[in-house]
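Q: How would the structure tokens look for this protein?
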Amino acid sequence: MVSFLVCLALLIAGYFVYGKVVDSTFGPDDRETPAVRINDGVDYVVMPQWKLFLVQLLNIAGLGPIFGALSGSLWGPSVFLWITFGTIFAGGVHDYFAGMLSERNEGASVSEITGIYLGGGMKNVMRVFSVVLLIMVGTVFAVGPAGLLQLLCKNAGGILANKMFWLILILIYYFIATFISVDKVIGKIYPVFGICLIIMAVGVAFGVITNSNYVIPELWDHLYNMHPSGTPIWSFMFITVACGAISGFHATQSPLMARCMKSERQGHMVFYGAMISEGIIALIWAAAGCS
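A: Here is the predicted structure in token form.
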């Protein structure tokens, strides 16, 4: 358990130390943000920092750091290293700059930002890539929760035990959240689910640490490939635990909150902080899986 606690401490320290380095490299200032300058009441709306953080956390997290981390635990506690250092030096940097570059460019999407800096050809490439990526991720984020809800309600019977019912309900919500002002649906529902995600991770951590039947293996005693099928660590573990360390999908979500920031100085907590929090959640679930 010591190696788990060390990695947890490194993630927290990474937010305050390396996160500050990243923030100072970008150089946030007091310029007027798109949320203040445009403020159309739909996509560009000023929201409080705590709400920005929780919405961003749920935008980038969801099932990813749970499923991915549990699958990654098949390789053993070496997954702790990837989650810890991947989050601090890759995922946090990626999410921060994706969000802040969007904020500096009127809340533009990742494909539009690519076009600004790399030209029209790359913009079209990123448009196609983003659409394909979002279809794939959207499918997983709809089918996955629908399957979990069906499992939770299997004893209820009737329509609640029907996976298609939950899938249709989730898709209806997706459409409502897309067309209604960001602060009316996403801004009210997502923070609640974000808090639930955090509470669930804290509960899992408490349960594993306090239950003597579970032992989190030490990294230094198991620094080898423990996968039961012998699947190589490189590069399978890195793409399996993608959402818990670094994910290109996050760049498609960060502009949502980049359009709702009152100040550029909120970026450190909203973007880098949310990724660090996702890394902590992933680390907890990976530790639970390893134990």
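The chain has 13 helices and no strands.

The chain has one domain: 2-24+34-290.

Upvote if useful.
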